[in-house]
Specification:
49% of the residues lie in helices and 13% in strands. The chain folds into four domains: 214 residues, no CATH class; 88 residues, no CATH class; 83 residues; 144 residues, no CATH class. The strands form three sheets. A seven-stranded parallel beta sheet has the order 3-4-2-1-9-10-11, sandwiched between helices. β10, α9 and β11 form a beta-alpha-beta unit. The protein has 574 residues and is α/β, with parallel strands linked by helices. The longest helix is centred in the middle third of the chain and has 31 residues.
Length: 574
């Protein structure tokens, strides 16, 4: 039975980077592993020479798609019209092995690595949570591998990919479907017959060509660069299907994982969809997320003069997909969704002339790591409103710095990190407060956030410690998400740990004087000896004034302030 098809709020788009954790090489590793797999010396030397020439030309490593494209062109080099415009040039690869067998070998190698066993896809289990909330879940993939199919097999999920046995796109409209998967470049399980048909065969066959019992020869339907605009009925229909999905009024969030947007036609489909669907936002998960956004998605042209329909609507998460996947639904999507709803409501209230508080929206945008949107909102609300909330004013610059460092925006990141240390220094060093009271005497420490005509804003030790612990956990978690951590974030994490240890010394902000002296004697701060002398005077003489009119208690308090500032300045350096 079929039903009207409607896209879910969340759509996943999986590129090669989403399958690395399943043991499928990325597009660059494919080249290295393929070369290592070749046993014939002649072929291996040919491929190495081709890769060397391409690397010199590109000035960088090359990926498997460029290698395939080159091999295809070399195979058909006599058909290239551009060659008619050259005279007298020697063919660099003259004398090397023939190219046609190499193309077949490479396609077979890709297929062999794209067949994924069930023990490799455990990291994809959080996708089941998406299915439970957004069923049927739409997954777009440009990968040939069997990761999603294995996930469905292991967890008994029903999926539709447009095939029964033969191509039949009506299957996308079937009821009781858990996942709809759109494989835009084909699959290792899809075959195109030499008689023009398309079939799906879930068989363990590591070669790209097979013989059917009908006598037909069928070859894997996996599109490579030169073929992507060739006619293949399933793939053209899939492009139409995903355009409908993205333009649907129900679509809100497109999570793009491990995809560099090298396919112009896919990028243009998403641009067009975002232009029509004003509520569509992207969450881009990739170690090079910001680079992909700024170079491929933010602008329509290379001159960066014309912002695209996606400008300001992309969250750049520079993390490994397998690590951040468990947090995407209940943390990033939830915070982004709440922020967008809050923003819409507040704008409507503002248009009615009501006074609005943007801090709640700012908080969830920061948690969603939508750095670009945060900066736009900061321009709107100004510095004063932000400083009303000491915890937010402390947390937000470090959270922003973390995202920006990992997105390789070091200039902006350093500015936010400096702001974080300035706020921390002002709170803990410049505005530390100490009192001494009781018998036996107890030293109490607390911090102040704002000092103005209305007084001060007191921050208790335990409250500050909780925030420090949250920031340590945040830095540790994000550092685990990335391929290479940031030295600045690593150093900041160590400083935060020292601050936590510092605050741990004061249980509920208090410590007995005797214990305090023992603690600070270890630090060898000069004022501690004077503190001990005054403390002897203090014992039994709490009301006695010295010649300056100060009591021993006041002198002890002043000395303790000097000592604690010196200790904290060792940790918090601007």
């Amino acid at each position: 039975m079929t039903t009207n098809k409607q896209s879910s709020q969340v759509i996943l788009f999986l590129g090669a980077g989403a399958s690395i954790a399943a043991g499928v090489p990325d597009t660059y590793s494919f080249v290295t592993e393929f070369i290592n797999s070749i046993r014939e010396p002649g072929k291996k030397e040919t491929v190495r020479k081709i890769v060397e020439i391409l690397s010199d030309w590109k000035g960088s490593d090359i990926d498997v798609e460029l290698l395939l494209e080159t091999l295809t062109k070399l195979e058909k080099k006599t058909e290239e019209p551009l060659l008619r415009f050259y005279k007298g040039g020697d063919f660099i690869l003259k004398g090397y092995s023939e190219k046609d067998p190499i193309i077949g070998d490479l396609k077979d190698f890709i297929k062999s690595r794209a067949i994924v066993t069930e023990d490799k896809i455990q990291y994809l289990k959080p996708i089941i949570g998406f299915v439970d909330e957004f069923r049927p879940l739409d997954i777009i993939s440009v990968n040939y591998d069997t990761c999603i199919e294995q996930l469905c097999n292991v967890h008994k999920l029903t999926y539709q990919d447009g095939f029964e046995v033969h191509w039949s796109p009506k299957t996308f409209y079937l009821e009781h479907t858990d996942i709809r998967v759109y494989k835009l470049h084909g699959s290792v399980m899809w075959y195109q017959s030499d008689r023009g048909g398309y079939i799906k065969l879930p068989v363990m066959k590591e070669t790209a060509k097979i013989q059917l019992i009908t006598g037909e020869t069928a070859e894997n339907l996996m599109l490579y660069p030169m073929q992507k605009w060739g006619y293949a009925e399933p793939l053209l229909e899939l492009l139409i299907e995903i355009k409908k999905l993205l333009e649907s009024e129900t679509s809100r969030f497109l999570i793009v994982a491990g995809y560099s947007f090298r396919d112009d036609h896919i990028r243009k489909i998403i641009w067009d969809s975002a232009r029509k669907n004003k509520d569509l936002h992207l969450i881009l998960v990739d170690p090079n997320a910001y680079q992909i956004y700024s170079e491929k998605l933010q602008y329509y042209d290379e001159t960066k003069r014309n912002p695209s329909s996606l400008s300001g609507r992309v969250v750049c998460l520079p993390y490994r997909f397998e690590d951040v996947l468990p947090y995407l639904k209940n943390y990033y999507i939830r915070n982004l969704r709440d922020a967008l709803i809050n923003e819409t409501n507040l704008r409507q209230n503002e248009m009615r002339g009501e006074k609005v508080d943007w801090l709640s929206t700012l908080k969830v945008l920061i948690n969603a790591e939508h750095a670009e949107r945060v900066e736009l909102l900061l321009e709107r609300i100004g510095k004063f409103d932000l400083e009303k909330d000491w915890q937010l004013n402390l947390e937000f610059p470090l959270r922003m710095a973390s995202n920006l460092f990992f997105n390789k925006q070091n200039g902006k990141a350093n500015e936010y990190l400096k702001k974080f240390y300035r706020v921390l220094y002002r709170m803990m060093v410049e505005r530390i407060s100490i009192s001494i009271a009781g018998e036996p005497p107890v030293l109490e420490v607390y911090f102040n956030y704002v000092r103005d005509k209305s007084g001060s804003s007191c921050i208790e030790v335990e409250s500050l410690k909780k925030v420090i612990e949250i920031l340590i956990e945040f830095c540790n978690t994000r550092s685990k998400f990335v391929i290479k951590t940031s030295n600045e974030i690593q150093e900041t994490t160590e400083r935060l740990k020292k601050l936590k240890n510092y605050l741990d010394q004061f249980k509920e902000g208090k410590i007995r004087i005797g214990d305090y002296i023992s603690l600070r004697e270890i630090t060898m701060i000069p004022q501690i000896d004077q503190f001990k002398k005054v403390y002897k005077t203090y014992q039994g003489q709490t009301r006695l004034l010295d010649r300056s009119g100060s009591s021993p208690r006041e002198k002890l308090t002043d000395l303790a302030m000097q000592i604690e500032k010196a200790v904290l300045e060792e940790i918090i350096t601007l």
